[in-house]
Specification:
Order of helices and strands: EHEHEEHHEHEHEHEHHH
Distance between the termini: 13 Å
Radius of gyration: 17 Å
Strand content: 15-25%
Length: about 260
């Protein structure tokens, strides 16, 4: 059985896609078959972390949702896109990373916003992706905020990772999303605090957030200049395997496993 994990944030800019990509790499390095779907169709971006040139891709999630192709036609094997500091692929064992991208063409994005799509078709696509590629884990990178497709992704998830920053606006929005997730009876809920200043007491911050939400904090991720220098051109998990951010990603993967 594939374990479905949705990563979500109430607001944009939390680093959700970066966290999702690094968790996927971590699980694949442990020998798992991992799938990722970029359902942030209005502003896709996770592809850059795996060096995927969408200008060369024939079919995207958009094409599937419009009925132009099957879900299998959209799947990319991006295992070799998980690169180490030497520029070589990091995954040499049985692990795999498969990816379904969303289109970055302005016309396609405008059409999705204007016409929307069949959310049930998205659900069927998830299930077929899991079965076809025999996935151990499916990571769904959601669109920020609350909408129909996000609620669907949360509802079918075994695990929901809620990404938030130590910011009052994020705190309030996360409370709303947690309430929805509990009503949808998601089996496993984790909070991931991202972009915490390294001067913070991470243990104290984690405890305060747990006390406020009564939800386990899987990790507190530091705001790092190394991430800024990478600039979404790769994965800190493999580029800096001994980094504090990487150690926290490994803690999240432990919680998922």
């Amino acid at each position: 059985m594939t374990k479905i994990i949705s990563t979500h944030s109430y607001r944009g800019g939390t680093g959700k896609s970066n966290v999702t990509a690094n968790i996927a790499a971590s699980l694949a390095l442990r020998g798992h078959k991992v799938g990722i779907v970029d359902t942030d169709i209005q502003s896709p971006g996770i592809h850059t972390l795996f060096h995927v040139d969408l200008n060369t891709v024939t079919h995207t999630l958009n094409n599937y949702l419009w009925g132009y192709c099957g879900i299998k036609d959209t799947v990319l094997d991006i295992t070799d896109g998980v690169k180490g500091p030497d520029g070589q692929p990091s995954i040499t064992g049985p692990g795999k990373v498969f990816f379904i991208p969303s289109s970055i063409k302005t016309g396609d994005i405008a059409r999705i916003v204007k016409e929307m799509y069949d959310v049930e078709a998205l659900n069927r696509g998830f299930m077929e992706f899991c079965d076809t590629m025999d996935l151990d884990y499916l990571l769904i990178d959601t669109h920020p905020g609350v909408n129909e497709e996000t609620l669907l992704s949360i509802a079918i998830s075994d695990t929901l990772l809620l990404i938030l920053r130590p910011d009052i606006q994020d705190y309030q929005g996360t409370a709303v999303t947690l309430e929805l997730a509990r009503k949808l009876e998601v089996p496993q809920l984790f909070l991931v605090v991202n972009k915490a200043l390294e001067t913070f007491d991470f243990q104290d911050l984690s405890q305060r957030i747990f006390s406020n939400y009564r939800t386990p904090v899987a990790a507190v991720l530091p705001l790092s200049t190394d991430l800024i220098q990478i600039g979404s051109t790769g994965l800190i998990r493999t580029l800096h395997p001994d980094h504090a951010f990487t150690r926290s990603i490994e803690k999240i993967a432990d919680s998922i496993e």
